[in-house]
Amino acid sequence: MTGAVIAVDIGGTTVKAAVVDDRGRRRSRREAPSLGGDDTVAAVRSMIDGLRAEAAAAGLDVLAAGVVTPGLVDASTGRIAYASNLGWRDFDLRGALETELRLPVSVGHDVRAAGRAEAQLGAARGASDFVLLQLGTGIAAAVMTGGVLVTGAGSAAGEAGHMPVYPGGEDCPCGKRGCLEAYAAGAAVPRRYRAAGGTGASTAREVTALLGRDALADQVWTEATTALAFGLNTLTMMLDPALIVLGGGMALAGDALLKPVSAALSELLVWRAAPPLRLSSVGPAAGQLGAAIEAFALTGSAACVDEWTSGPAGCPE
Amino acid sequence: MTGAVIAVDIGGTTVKAAVVDDRGRRRSRREAPSLGGDDTVAAVRSMIDGLRAEAAAAGLDVLAAGVVTPGLVDASTGRIAYASNLGWRDFDLRGALETELRLPVSVGHDVRAAGRAEAQLGAARGASDFVLLQLGTGIAAAVMTGGVLVTGAGSAAGEAGHMPVYPGGEDCPCGKRGCLEAYAAGAAVPRRYRAAGGTGASTAREVTALLGRDALADQVWTEATTALAFGLNTLTMMLDPALIVLGGGMALAGDALLKPVSAALSELLVWRAAPPLRLSSVGPAAGQLGAAIEAFALTGSAACVDEWTSGPAGCPE
Lengths: 317, 317
Description:
The structure is a homodimer of 317-residue chains. The first copy, chain A, has helices at residues 37-57, 93-101, 110-121, 181-184, 188-195, 204-209, 215-239, 255-269, 286-299, 307-310; strands at residues 2-10, 14-21, 26-33, 60-69, 72-74, 79-83, 88-92, 105-109, 130-135, 139-145, 148-149, 243-247, 277-279. Chain A has 2 domains: 2-114 and 283-310, ATPase, nucleotide binding domain (Nucleotidyltransferase, domain 5); 127-279, ATPase, nucleotide binding domain (Nucleotidyltransferase, domain 5), CATH 3.30.420.40. By secondary structure, the first copy, chain A, is α/β, with parallel strands linked by helices. Chain A is 37% helix and 24% strand. Chain A has 10 helices and 13 strands. The radius of gyration of chain A is 20 Å and the shape is globular. Chain A binds chain B through residues 127-129, 141, 143, 145-146, 148, 150-160, 162-167, 174-176, 230, 233-235, 237-242, 268-272, 275, and chain B through 127-130, 141, 143, 145-146, 148, 150-160, 162-167, 174-176, 230, 233-235, 237-242, 268-272, 275. Chains A, B: It holds the Pfam family ROK. Chains A, B: It comes from Cryptosporangium phraense. Chains A, B: InterPro entries: ATPase_NBD (IPR043129), ROK (IPR000600).
């Protein structure tokens, strides 16, 4: 029987779950709205139960589940100190899942799990000092230094979206001013485009589709990529990463994102070379794949994960 | 015989060396100008030789030397990849000292060594996640995360002075614009005071002595502490330190530094508490004490260092 895990990425609006086999293939998937609090826990339990039944029918032996969420996550205890969008405060998420499911469950942080996936399988493979900047609706970072993911004293490290890039600048929805996220996040780009009078786009992707043909779209996008370069200037100075990976939904813009950010960062750094800048190779499912890696680590078959991109040799049948 | 080491802090203008005994007491000291290149190496050798003779005469057994410098320092190899003020490029500093001195020599980075001293003996004692912001002529940081000092991929981490706090802001002597150091370093404060027309001060300490009686001094100092708060806002978001220590010569300003930076940081953070902010308790000699700690680590009597502040119990006579 083939070993597998169930990997769950709990977001503020959607819960995404999948069966991931020991070759790293997602075999079946489910999605549900994330309603917060106990409802989200119930949805996660129900999805795991359903996927487990499907996996068994397909000849897969589910060994563990890996769950990742935003917020202040203590991976060692499985507790969530605080997750604003999910309504959890000092909540024993691992306990709430393991007891009823009778399955080992790992609990991790969504962006750090994405960093783990990039390090083991993706654009940062082999790097022990890198930054993953996850550009979604908001912006957060996973920082690996000396081979270890930085969690901070209260599991709150990586709030790259709320670095002040323009002191006293535009209001951020978070209540602070001049945050990177207020200029460059997936939510900020269309908001700033419309605020400037633009009418042709209501998502970041639609704004990038207008580049070269809509002066407002060009302006807002240049301001977003410039703000990102200022943020990466700071991270390069402080952390000296071997490389920087841009991930999340906005990284799907490809060269339209990578080229202007790289050029602006190189110019800003003046006296040192910019670290290589790459797009995520795992893509927006990096958090979910990181959850699978963390779950496989629980089962003792973590080494197999190394084979996911290099081929199936060495993985137990 | 009492064990001792010789601790050497190589700066851009001065080399400071001292015999440090196994109680952490500096027993005798020497200073020499730092002329760069081979001249600095010769000065370090000569100081170590001289101090060693003095130590022997005082009944101290010199077991090792610890040397710290600015620049790109690889502590594992003892090589300096680059140190602009010292004229070293890909230089085997440890080899250049050990061979002639016939003494084990540790080579470390001055600010990270200061961080080590704060962690073992000073204001960050017991913390495994903290930032030491070293405020001297320039500004640099030591970052400890999960108990490990961050070096970065090329030993270049911690360049906090060259984080852009005001994008497109004032020219920094480094060639970049809007760097923290251009507003808040020991060199910047009197430069900005004079550029604004001030005539009563030519050092940062003299500017702080005028606070409350000279409106220009007040203004320039407020701009410096505000810039520091913006920088610490970023570091708090990214690293979530358990505490922040302000060290270096400017920390001798005491509450005149600590209070406005704390107040501004708390206000800027809005939705999270500021990490506690403390002044260095080791003081400007933190780098030298860190060099002593690194040298004692070579001798295998590192445990004794833990007793430096708690008393002599447990240290070998």
